[in-house]
Amino acid sequence: MATAPELDVAANPLDSFRAEARAWIAANFPPSLKNKDSSLSSLEGPTDLSADEIAWKTAMGDKGWGVPGWPVAYGGGGLDKAQIRVLQEELARAGASNPIGGMGIMMFGPTLLEYGSEAQKQEHILAIAKGDVRWCQGYSEPNAGSDLANVQTFAEDAGDHYIVNGQKTWTSGGQWADKCFALVRTDKSQKHGGISFLLIDMTAPGVEVKPIRMISGQSPFCETFFTNVKVPKENLVGREGQGWEIGTRLLQHERNSLSGGGGASRLFAGKPMGTLAKEYRGADDKGRVPDSDLRMRIVRHEMDSRAFALTLRRAALEAKSNQGPSAATSIMKNVGARITQDRAELSIEIMGMAGLGWEGEGFSEDELTQTRTWLWGKAVSIYGGSTEIQNNIVSKRILGMLDHQ
Amino acid sequence: MAALNDEQTMLRDMVREWADNESPVTAFRKLRAAAPVEGYDPAAWRALSEMGLPGIVIPEAFGGTAFGYLSLGLVLEQLGRNLAATPLASTAAAASAIVLGGSDAAKAEWLPKIASGAVIATLAIDEGPVHDPAKISASVSGGKLSGTKAFVAEGDSASVFVVAASDGLYLVTGDTGVTRAPRHMTDSRSHAQVTFDGAPAERLGDTKLTAQVIDRATAITCAEMLGMAEQAFHTTNDYLKTRVQFGQQLSTFQALQHRMAKMFTELELMRSAVEGALEAIDAGRSDLDQAVSLAKAVASDTLHLVSREMIQLHGGIGMTDEHDAGFYIKRARVLETMWGNAAFHRERFAQLNGY
């Protein structure tokens, strides 16, 4: 919001809320944090928080506005959609970012609100809302990636607790997490029906975490090993055997956050490829990108991006206009991945050797970032349901094509 | 599907019902066999005219409905699904030129006749086999237009021509100085070489208007292509569910499932691009030229893919004249070529963006 809207409190209750939000932000947001990204919600690990950062996080946590839509009873803001939009506008206006984020907010919290017992909600939701506890996701295993229901980590019934043994992998932020929501097997006789949803304390004896170094040089993921880890039975969410249902519900929250408004808008950030190309390659006597093949591939990519942007807009309009969920949403993940990867490949090609620097002298910061972005981008078509899994979903659910008999 | 208002939803459903009941692909097959000189079924055109469709982009003051380009696109999409052979696209494109550039007298005389369906109008722009608006040599002197126009759609029946000369657009009505030679094309639709030899012509506007009108013609062509691509895809999807080989429906083979999923993905992008161009025209957006080039490039590539795959996935039956697949691929290539193919529009998009 570039300009301050006129406030007419009497005429519109939303304006009254806007006034309240604006005043509260002015009173609580430390000016030193203006226009700074929140480091807390990233997967890059904990950083030493400044006193101002701690103050802002505490204020937002106490107010419940880190999770504005969650119920007040569990530490949320209890705001409706219109109020949340106003709050976001006012935060943006002040240059403030939400200091409370991560997997607890995006995926686990909403799922626990739906499936958790009252005691579980009291214990966990409040801490998530305050940003005090970091959660990680214990889903994938070495032999359960795209075939997630093949999880083998076993939780053996030992009376008032389970004994958990097994290995998880691709645990995002596992090395910094306090707790883990995990899919474990409680019954080996059936595949989907033998899975349960269990909450595991990452500091419990028998939990071991090893960061995985990726091709991009970063280590945002871990392997997590469970060796005779004792987990109290009150940490079971839902019933034994209900884990697949709960776990896939959580994945819907994950996909929404991966392909929805927030992630997608980042695709269109940055320089147009044509501008980047002229910076690195110059222009021919007619002012064109001199490599005609590259020039046309840039055009194809830009067209693909624009058609995707139009599709995001169309899907949002269709959803609003009561036509039910748009079929277009089923293609978002794959097209978003394709555009992200094409953009990175084109960028490094345009930059030549300068786009392949690893570290140190002789490269700009943007160039070094580009190398890592390009490599990290290869994950986009793998995580959150690979491109192939998405194609299965489209062909079966949208096109009605059946499994082999 | 764009977010439609009630009027647009009713229009779409009405035309879809008409096309399915009165103009299925079998109607086009019969038309091809009968081969009427005008290249379309006059009874079908009367039916569309009674629904008010030729006046969709014509103001109400001149007998139209002024529903706009997205609405026209919805109609052409429904007609395109069944390959309904009508002069609607050509007539509407020519009408847009008169709406944008015509004198009050020209509007009053021609728009009501076009809106009622009494008169077939068309654009006569290109002079060679490849769309090239920069290469127009037709010229006007003393109010008389001379030049030869190639592959004019509905050129066999049109009595109102909107003609591009090197300095802009002109309106030619009547037969004086106009001769037509039919060009029998693979899509069995009406195309003709039209020669103007000192034909009386009224000026509509400069080459800017020519470009504006071509953009409109291109966008509505894309809408017909969208309907064709959707139907070609769904016909293929249905076939894969009925054809059994190795004791399995073809649709159970993952290699085919993923090909279909990818085509579906491209179709969704195509719909967004095409509807985006039509909406840009309705909104009078200043970058509608880019939106149109995006739409035509994406539409051409996608219809090309889907029409090829329609034959491949049907196998031998798709190669036979008895099957509809041939109709779709033949019309597809004509529309891909018309108003510039994908490569033309990628180059134009590059220039518009300064790449």
Automatic annotation (TrEMBL), chain A:
Domain spans labelled Acyl-CoA oxidase/dehydrogenase middle: 136-229
Domain Acyl-CoA dehydrogenase/oxidase N-terminal positions = 17-132
Q: What cofactor does this protein call for?
A: FAD
Concerning InterPro entries, the annotation shows: Acyl-CoA_Oxase/DH_mid-dom, Acyl-CoA_Oxase/DH_mid-dom_sf, AcylCo_DH-like_C, AcylCo_DH/oxidase_C, AcylCoA_DH/ox_N, AcylCoA_DH/ox_N_sf, AcylCoA_DH/oxidase_NM_dom_sf, Mycobact_Acyl-CoA_DH
Q: Which residues are in the Acyl-CoA dehydrogenase/oxidase C-terminal domain?
A: 241-399
Q: Which UniProt keywords apply?
A: FAD, Flavoprotein, Oxidoreductase
Pfam families named in the record: Acyl-CoA_dh_1, Acyl-CoA_dh_M, Acyl-CoA_dh_N
Family in the record? Belongs to the acyl-CoA dehydrogenase family.
Which named protein is this? Acyl-CoA dehydrogenase
TrEMBL record, chain B:
Q: Which residues form the Acyl-CoA dehydrogenase/oxidase C-terminal domain?
A: 219-350
Q: Which UniProt keywords apply?
A: FAD, Flavoprotein, Oxidoreductase
Question: Is this entry keyworded Oxidoreductase?
Answer: yes
Q: Does the keyword Hydrolase apply?
A: no
Specify the Acyl-CoA dehydrogenase/oxidase N-terminal domain's residue ranges: 5-117
According to the UniProt entry, where is the signal peptide? none
| CDD domains attached to this UniProt entry | ACAD
Q: Which cofactors are reported in the record for this sequence? A: FAD
What PANTHER family does the database record attribute to this sequence? Answer: ACYL-COA DEHYDROGENASE (PTHR43884), ACYL-COA DEHYDROGENASE FADE28 (PTHR43884:SF20)
As for family, the record states: Belongs to the acyl-CoA dehydrogenase family.
Name of the protein in question: Acyl-CoA dehydrogenase
Q: Which organism is it from?
A: Sphingomonas psychrolutea
Classification lineage: Bacteria, Pseudomonadati, Pseudomonadota, Alphaproteobacteria, Sphingomonadales
